[in-house]
């Protein structure tokens, strides 16, 4: 990770800028809000220590919270994603890839495993995010609809970005 530190710093700033300047301004009927900043947490190497993973998760979530004027909602959801990511990695990957410190991307994991990884992570993150945002079960059907629609768009944007970056 140390040798790729510059790459991760650039990825952090690019994802935050895209999220804050472009994607936070996209809302379709108030139901669809794509969030791709979580890609930063998902693309960190498998062997990163837990305290760094949680720290970076908090940092990117808190940064999006600052620019979005949301009081800790993104930070909380992203820290939860960072907390469950090791279990998710064990679920979709082999032990050799995890111990080797592989970066989870389409080329390393394979297409099917990477899609499973992204879908599960986005669904969990968005579920926590939207229920923390509404903090009520009164509008549960609207919240579930927002969760599904936003998750689908976020997954498509994340996969599209990976197809652009990893052209193979």
Provide structural commentary.
The protein has a single domain, classed as Arp2/3 complex 21 kDa subunit ARPC3 (Orthogonal Bundle). It is 72% helix and 0% strand. The chain has helices at residues 5-22, 39-42, 50-68, 73-92, 95-100, 106-109, 111-134, 140-165. Helix 3 (50-68) packs antiparallel against helix 4 (73-92) and helix 4 (73-92) packs antiparallel against helix 7 (111-134). The model has no long low-confidence stretch (mean pLDDT 88).
Low-confidence stretches: none
Top CATH class: Mainly Alpha
What would you call the shape?
globular
Question: What's the architecture, going by CATH?
Answer: Orthogonal Bundle
Distance between the termini: 23 Å
Estimated helix fraction: over 70%
Order of helices and strands: HHHHHHHH
Largest sheet: none
Radius of gyration: 15 Å
Outline of the structure:
With 168 residues, the chain is an all-alpha fold. Helices cover 72% and strands 0% of the residues.
Write the layout of secondary structure elements.
Elements: H1 5-22, H2 39-42, H3 50-68, H4 73-92, H5 95-100, H6 106-109, H7 111-134, H8 140-165
Helix pairs in contact: 1-3, 3-4, 4-7, 7-8
What descriptors fit this protein?
168 residues; mainly alpha; Arp2/3 complex 21 kDa subunit ARPC3; 8 helices; 0% strand
């Amino acid at each position: 990770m140390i040798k790729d530190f510059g790459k991760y710093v650039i990825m952090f700033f690019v994802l935050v800028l895209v999220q804050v300047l472009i994607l936070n301004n996209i809302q379709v009927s108030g139901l669809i809000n794509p969030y791709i900043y979580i890609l930063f947490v998902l693309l960190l190497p498998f062997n990163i220590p837990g305290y760094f993973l949680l720290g970076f998760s908090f940092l990117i979530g808190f940064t999006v919270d600052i620019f979005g004027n949301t009081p800790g909602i993104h930070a909380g959801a992203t820290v939860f994603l960072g907390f469950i990511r090791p279990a998710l990695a064990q679920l979709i990957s082999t032990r050799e890839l995890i111990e080797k410190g592989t970066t989870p991307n389409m080329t390393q994991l394979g297409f099917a495993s990477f899609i499973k990884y992204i879908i599960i992570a986005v669904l969990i993150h968005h579920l926590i995010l939207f229920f923390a945002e509404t903090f009520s079960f009164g509008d549960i059907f609207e919240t579930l609809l927002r969760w599904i629609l936003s998750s689908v768009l976020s997954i498509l944007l994340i996969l599209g970005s990976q197809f652009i970056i990893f052209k193979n």
